[in-house]
Specification:
This protein is of the alpha/beta class. The chain is built from eight helices and 14 strands. The protein has a single domain (about 1-280), classed as Nitrilase/N-carbamoyl-D-aminoacid amidohydrolase.
């Protein structure tokens, strides 16, 4: 099957404006024959968690989010394409960093809420870039769900989640055929674009390798509000090899053909499920 990361450059001026760009990418991917696509973290908005805001409504507005997701679901149905769409989800006054899993028939199959929340509540006085997700987002409360989107079962991780091996293993145990990883990763002071990209790719390819699972990794690219984001969206095979990478720092369809039959053979060879020892994965004293 042909899958794709739908990389986005800096967000537009509003949720509707960015949604139009997303629909353009979906149209392009559909014309290529893509049947499963993944968008970056907080795809509908800027990465607003790098600054202090008194009013979050421009980024968490429930009506605008609903309209955006409705349009994206209609595009999914038009192209018979499953889509993973991350956004800032407002639920009873609380905000989650979430992703919606959209079935190729245009219905919502499920939701994942970012489990591991990085950063601080208050910015550090001497920090050039602040990560304030603890100020805005509640930790995910839906577990590591896996959802049937038509052709495959898929689960997701959002940004910092990709640094935790347990997250990939949980999705694998729950039956994921493919894992979606979405991120908005800035180049932090003291690092370089190349180093940040290498670190991200290492975490994701390792997750693919030690679970035998295809991963579609979609990121924000370019410079937004003065901050450089790593982009470099890619698709990795179930043996941990990178199949394709983004060629630009802008909106781009990053597509690759993946082989689920080969994945099945790789998993059979390594037999992770049969040979796991979960009762031993606890802290113990040496003996």
């Amino acid at each position: 099957m042909l899958v794709a990361a739908l990389q986005l450059g800096p967000a537009g001026s509003s949720i509707p404006a960015t949604t139009e760009r997303i629909l353009g990418l979906v149209e392009k991917a559909g014309a290529m024959g893509v049947t499963l696509a993944v968008l970056p973290e907080l795809a509908l908005t800027p990465y607003f968690a790098a600054e202090i805001h008194e009013d979050l409504d421009p980024w968490v507005n429930a009506a605008e989010n609903k309209a955006a997701l409705t349009a994206i679901m209609a595009a999914a149905k038009k192209h018979a394409m499953s889509l993973v769409t991350p956004y800032a989800e407002l639920v009873e006054g609380e905000v989650f960093n979430s992703m919606a899993f959209i079935h190729r028939k245009g219905t919502r199959a499920g939701t994942f809420r970012k489990m591991h929340i990085p950063g601080e509540v208050e910015p550090k006085p001497d920090a050039k870039i602040s990560i304030l997700e603890k100020r805005y987002f509640k930790p995910g409360n839906l577990g590591f769900g896996v959802y049937d989107v038509g052709d495959v079962k898929i689960g997701g991780l959002i940004c910092y989640d990709r640094r935790f091996p347990e997250a990939y293993r949980s999705l694998s145990i729950n039956g994921a055929d493919i894992i979606a990883v979405s991120y908005n990763t800035p180049v932090m002071p003291g690092s370089t674009l190349g180093q940040a990209r290498k670190s991200s790719e290492l975490a994701i390819t390792a997750g693919a390798y030690y679970t035998g699972t295809i991963i579609i990794a979609a990121g924000k690219a370019g410079k937004e509000n003065g901050v450089r984001y790593i982009g470099r969206s890619f698709v990795v095979g179930s043996d941990g090899s990178v199949l394709t990478r983004a060629k630009t720092n802008h909106d781009e369809v990053v597509a690759a053909e993946v082989d689920l039959e080969r994945q099945s053979k790789i998993r059979e060879r390594w037999a992770f499920g049969r040979n796991r020892r979960p009762n031993e994965y606890v802290l113990t004293e040496a003996r």
